[in-house]
């Protein structure tokens, strides 16, 4: 049996909204320590990993580990019934085929109560990429969203180039080429942009997925990108003590780059 | 001849918008006492009754009773030409086949003037259900709108259950079941929710119509539901001295309930 | 070579947005004095004339006159990448087949840089109508936008009638007829409406084009209409020192009016 209370139904709503377009059916693993979900997207290209810590809930009880098979599209529909400032209670037990959700408005005059049907789903074994982070770039999540959306008007891929205190997102297509360069202000300790890297990074990703990850933007003010040569990108959104959501995406393999790494310094790759 | 001046074209705009999706062609009956409209919706399932009192207008003159045949969709289009803070003047006469509308902006620098073609329509005799109100529930119209809209994501019907100081709107469908419970705070004299009932109410209605009625929500802060066992629901929105708009809808006949009323206490009906 | 810096990318964005639905491919003529564009719309019915003065830019350099062939739809897409408060730099040279655009956000932490492909386009020789302005009407551009949009619900044409201190825009169609009268308050020196005319004006135009011109509304608070009997209308939006955008449209020829001008005083023409 799991029973969990969260002050803000809104944060759970945003969380499910940020996953449902990538993964529709998934397994929520409930344990004493919290609720965890790891899944590949429907086209088996990207990975999502979500962790909600028991300590981040206002109340959390789970007597023993068990799995909930959930359709996230249905769950997102139910969560639309929650008011922006409602608190939320989730309840489920291994003996039951429904997930129970209830929302209470601030003055407790309106209580809504829903039973959602659970689904049978065989647990996917997902192995997350090894952590091997040469470059860590922290940028405002609003800027991340805008850049990913704007570059879609240019092309289908995004080239990410990073060097100390500087990261560039660029694209090219029919109408031309171009991109965004974000720079850390070293004189400003509170710079909203921070790029730490040991070596130069130059990787290309499918823009569509970076845009799908951007749906988690409303969860927090900043997003952190973890980049390493020839390794998957990890895009992380944290929700304070409550936990995090992480997305993984492998870079596109570029034959020119494979055989010859010397063109790293060109500003725009247009092959 | 009728000639009427209203301080706010906006309220008339909202009024027509709240009817036009139910009733397209209707008869406005103009008398010394005001303007009245009663009609069934196109599928002959629900009823609308609107009353505008002569005393609610800034000026009102009507020498003798006559009927105006109006297409409400055209009227709603013309009313879009009114600014939010414009005043409005309506003019029509039995000898004329047009309705004259004019709008004046607050500083009187812009006056708009329209002639709308009237239509020939035989007056429908509509008999309103007898008033027999066992339960009167007053709730914020914003909540009514949200509940009706949210339940559409669940199912096609809404079950309304009322007991003293408590009303529940619930639904069920493919993804699960659930609903909203609104409770009157008896310790708070200014409680925004008030439910007065002599006996327990348990009725089911087609959600689509309750959503159509919800379009009148912008007309006032509160909506009042009048409920009686086996009788049509009346949903009332009042506009102060100006009058009201009322919608009527018969409950769905449920055979199980007909033969056996004892399942009133079950929280959710899922047959 | 032309190199120009503008404090606000936003104004350039609005400018291109106000032209791109009329003219997709055009020639920007760059000279020492600024950038000029004159083109007919795709259906060869209306004319657009844009002038950006070198003195309106924060920096402007152009060594010798040359033409840039630009697809405005692509340019509008690129300009969406500019933040609302970004500054903008444009660069192009006759030897290059791209236009270079860069945007810088207020704290200079984000710089975006784009290369847009130029197009081959033979310069259109456009002869602007002679200036012969009997009537000059200045009205708030928000009102102009609202009137043009609202009249579309009535009909396809707009009849513009002007007399000293008064201008009427009217239309008629299936649902009826009507229009807007704007009046100058002679007692108020700061009247937002000013209509100066030597003689009575009565002209009819295709509403669709007046609506397309209205897209320039966000560029400035007021729009000026220049009207003369049997002559094209000029609709002008000015951007202070930076320049202007002007649209030209010939009136519809009405045979009744041609042979007989005496019906000028009728309020609404419904032939």
From TrEMBL, chains A, B, C:
- Proliferating cell nuclear antigen PCNA C-terminal domain location is 131-252
A Pfam family this protein belongs to?
Answer: PCNA_N
One Gene Ontology CC term in the entry = PCNA complex
GO molecular function annotations of the record: DNA binding; DNA polymerase processivity factor activity
InterPro entries documented for this protein: DNA_clamp_sf, Pr_cel_nuc_antig, Pr_cel_nuc_antig_C, Pr_cel_nuc_antig_CS, Pr_cel_nuc_antig_N
Where in the numbering of this chain does the Proliferating cell nuclear antigen PCNA N-terminal domain appear?
A: 1-122
* Protein's cellular compartments: Nucleus
Q: What processes does the entry annotate via GO biological process terms?
A: leading strand elongation; mismatch repair; regulation of DNA replication; translesion synthesis
Q: SUPFAM superfamilies of this UniProt entry?
A: DNA clamp
PROSITE patterns, A to Z: PCNA_1
Grouped into one coarse class, the protein's main location is nucleus
Q: Which UniProt keywords apply?
A: DNA replication, DNA-binding, Nucleus
Q: Family, per the entry? A: Belongs to the PCNA family.
Q: Kindly give the PANTHER family that the UniProt entry links to this protein.
A: PROLIFERATING CELL NUCLEAR ANTIGEN
Q: What does this protein do?
A: This protein is an auxiliary protein of DNA polymerase delta and is involved in the control of eukaryotic DNA replication by increasing the polymerase's processivity during elongation of the leading strand.
Q: What is this protein called?
A: DNA sliding clamp PCNA
